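Quick one: co-fold with magnesium ion.
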Amino acid sequence: METTLIIFKPDAVQRGLMGRILSRFEDKGLQVVGCKLMHITQDLAARHYEAHKARPFYNSLVGFMTSSPVLVLAIRGNNAIAVSRKMMGATFGSNAEPGTIRGDFGVSNSFNLIHGSDSPEAAERELALFFQPAEIVSHDRAMEKWVYDCSGGAPE
Ligand code: IDP
Ligand code: MG
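Sure, here it is.
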């Protein structure tokens, strides 16, 4: 099981799309193990997006991410990182496929609603930036055996 960091960006929160976007993750069978509404500080945004520091859009990206509250989630499941990225769609709303979150809810290239970790290394780093270990609430779901085929031992 993987855990990934998902952020509903300020545009998603301001546009009242939190419930509809979160429903997609729940509908898919992914599990919420961490969740908080927060205002990202300048320092946290800089650490989160440090790989993009040299990019021309970096300042506006940090400005956007700190402009209004975000909903930060820890989402768990089999291949949760790749599954979530696929659900998010391509980076730019203007060319994200219909059926994806970015493709269905937005058209902007910078206000693109959602962040998701892009690798296991990124997920580990980003989860540690946004959550204390005790804020990750691992728990068994009664429906788990109907979400995954566990007949072989490991969830399939
Ligand atoms: P990702 O969010 O799909 O992983 P990244 O390339 O990691 O995309 O970029 C991080 C974020 O920076 C994007 O989600 C988007 O908000 C913003 N961004 C990326 N490229 C551009 C651009 O060319 N113009 C404006 N904003 C951009
Ligand atoms: Mg990225």
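If it helps, Residues 2-147 form a domain with the Alpha-Beta Plaits fold (CATH 3.30.70.141).
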